[in-house]
């Protein structure tokens, strides 16, 4: 297995975003992730690649699935994993961000996984520490491991990424998942569409190389993948969209709207879902169309690959093989 | 140049030993005189006596220098009126004056106008008197207060403009906070007419700017930062211009950053309205790309805009639409900048870099040195009605001597200002202040340059 690790060329100290990561590097990470999928389905899941290493999951924002996924990934590789949840309300904001970084750094961790509500906060923190940093989601900027696990899910089902048509639908403006996916999918040669009312699209989103649609029936036409995004309920009380029922009527995914997509189009959602808001509950559970649970499964494999790659890439660590 | 004669690290505003004791006659010889107000641009000399300009001109020392005068050889460098900076932010009324004045003197600035956006806000006669008194005590350079336009800078009730003017306020503004309410703005402009007072506004529709932290556009979208559209500035500027038309008030728009804003003021001037405006070096020397990877030193308000906007601001300076260049000096402790971008304070220090960055305009564009200097001397002085910013017999000898070609690298760590938050850190600049003189007294002298 360690032979596979050594094939990866990943000349980055941290994984802060997908923007700037090359197609070969993405493919390498996905190949390595693939090698973990089968192992994760066995009774004995544990390996020793990261024995003796310390991973700290530093979360400034609530998260269950991403944190659990990183925790499992670290433990399955034999690393010591510690979770730290810092509620931003209880600290004096950014001053403590750097202080926290320095404090943790003094304990010599090998990897820090950081989630923070502010865009750029993870990069700021990464400049102050000696270890590798994985962005577990910063503000509305990037969420690279989510994009990688989405890509792995798609690649396993469709056999490729290049040439596919992917429609990302919903709250693009506030979504780090959307940004990371746009970068990854267009880097890998997929055709990316965004489908949302103009109030939920950030300015000049077209410059990221996507096609813009405001109507689902146009945006979903002939696409291979429909990627739904979560819409925070507080954004639907008349601020960005008029109401939940109007949103579901025009932008919620149901069987009728899916009609125009390719017959074998897959449905994805980064979770947690708002059933009956952005996605019809029955459709979300349809095992022929929805790969939502598979995304969660791929999450652990992808995070294992990221942990291995980044610890191996650190200059202070010698490769033992 | 006596390079290395003294440690350059200890550049401090300091009084020349001879002149602190007694200000007597000083003869500035071998200078290149520039007075933007009169158009004088020629080699010559200047004589000051007891803090006042006695005489100046190309032929002044044709018969030799007076024997009893201290002689300063300008070595052909430029001798101009000291700079007037009409937008300086200090947080704490009175307390940051020493630091700011030393920093201003190093930048060739001899007069600053401080914003009322302090804590507490400068909205009462007592506070204006306090600032004026404090300025006299510190004494290094001239400080004039701008008073709050509304009580507590809350944008609701107008302040005692007449009394505040008598106490020493030179203009009225809510500083960094714009007046949101159209009716309040209308009444302020109308009432100010009775005393011919100047209203200064940094236009921004705050409901439209919302939680934005940088210019709205591709870079904000890539960085995942909330954007501020150009319209946030132009909507309020347009409204204010219409209110000027309605009331006949005197209005000055501060910190223009967009192409359309420049155009709005250009048209207002063509219609004969009493509208003037300023901008600051970041808006003609930088664009939104300076935000780069979340550089909080480039977080400014208004935000750095697109390249098209920057070019339009340069054009506005060249064609005279933009009357004044201000530093918009806003010192911040580094802790308030070492933050995630959206949490960082906005603003930059600018006193020490104002002249050097503005000089780029004379090299890259069509602005003459004299016209550029006009925007930092007599331009603001005339708008504010101050006796400053010009070479005039009998006027205070507030002067700057600078070498417009001298190269240096802007290094944040070497600024005199305690706050180092400059977006120009690392910039290769051309043009250095050699000596700043206030009322005949040298208040800054660059020790590593000769004059």
Can you put this structure into words, describing what you see?
The complex is a heterodimer of chains A (321) and B (451). Chain A is an alpha/beta fold and 321 residues long. Helices cover 39% and strands 14% of the residues of chain A. The longest helix of chain A has 22 residues, at 292-313. Chain B is of the alpha/beta class. Chain B has a domain at 83-386: Alpha-Beta Barrel (TIM Barrel), CATH 3.20.20. Chain B contains 14 helices and 19 strands. Chain B has helices spanning 17-21, 97-106, 125-138, 161-167, 182-193, 206-209, 218-223, 231-247, 259-270, 281-285, 307-318, 354-364, 369-374, 378-384, and strands spanning 26-35, 40-49, 52-57, 70-73, 78-81, 83-88, 109-114, 142-145, 147-148, 172-173, 198-201, 214-215, 227-228, 250-253, 275-279, 324-325, 399-409, 428-438, 441-445. In chain B, helix 9 packs parallel to helix 11 (307-318). Chain B is globular. Chains A and B meet through helix 4 and helix 5 of A and helix 7 of B.
**Mean of the pLDDT scores of chain A?**
91
Number of helices of chain A: 12
Largest interface: A-B, 26 and 21 residues
Strand order of the largest sheet of chain A: 7-6-5-8-9
Q: How many DSSP E strands of chain B?
A: 19
If you average the pLDDT of chain B, what whole number results? 92
Task: Give the topology, please.
The complex is a heterodimer of chains A (321) and B (451).
Chain A (H helix, E strand, L loop, with lengths): L1 H6 L15 H19 L12 E6 L5 H12 L3 E6 L7 H13 L5 E6 L4 H6 L5 E7 L5 H15 L6 E5 L6 H12 L3 E5 L15 E3 L2 H4 L5 E4 L15 H8 L3 H4 L7 E3 L12 H4 L7 H22 L8
Parallel strand pairs in A: 1-2, 1-3, 3-4, 5-6, 5-8, 6-7, 8-9
Helix pairs in contact in A: 2-6, 2-12, 3-12, 6-7, 6-12
Chain B lengths: L16 H5 L4 E10 L4 E10 L2 E6 L12 E4 L4 E4 L1 E6 L8 H10 L2 E6 L10 H14 L3 E4 L1 E2 L12 H7 L4 E2 L8 H12 L4 E4 L4 H4 L4 E2 L2 H6 L3 E2 L2 H17 L2 E4 L5 H12 L4 E5 L1 H5 L21 H12 L5 E2 L28 H11 L4 H6 L3 H7 L14 E11 L18 E11 L2 E5 L6
Parallel strand pairs in B: 1-4, 1-5, 6-7, 7-8, 9-10, 11-14, 12-13, 14-15, 15-16
Antiparallel strand pairs in B: 1-2, 2-3, 5-17, 17-18, 18-19
Helix pairs in contact in B: 5-8, 8-9, 9-11
